[in-house]
Amino acid sequence: MSGHGSPEEIFQSKEMWYKATLLAAGAVIIPFSAFILYKEMGHEHHHGKVYTHMHIRRKAFPWKENDCGLFDMHCKHEWRAAHGGH
After folding, report:
1. Residue 10 CA to chain centroid, in angstroms?
2. Is the CB of residue 47 less than 8 Å from the CB of residue 69?
3. Any residues with CB less than 8 A from the CB of 1 and at least 6 apart, and which?
4. pLDDT tens readout for residues 54-85
């Protein structure tokens, strides 16, 4: 690309490179994302040892499962099962 040419040629060249970039990015990102998803879903996640200093609560959380973190769905599920699904 030398930058020479009419405005129409420059616009067409810009459009061609824009489409080529989208195609190339899609050709790389979509298969890579599918591969990562396959690899992550193919094995069970093991959570490491829970240390006592990592679970200190100075004040109860403001939700009913007040000993569970905001995004700790496993803890919340166990709490609901133990407390009758409240």
Report:
1. 38
2. no
3. 13
4. 777 788 888 888 788 888 899 899 989 998 87
With H, G, I as helix, E, B as strand and everything else as coil, classify residue 84. Answer: coil
Do residues 43 and 33 touch, judged by C-beta distance below 8 A? no
Radius of gyration of the chain (CA): 26
pTM here is: 0.39
Q: How far apart are CA 17 and CA 75, in angstroms?
A: 50
Contact 67, 56 (CB under 8 A): no
End-to-end CA distance of the chain: 66
Place of tokens 């006592």: 52
Q: How far is the C-alpha of 41 from the C-alpha of 34, rounded, in Å?
A: 11
CA 22 remoteness from chain centre: 22
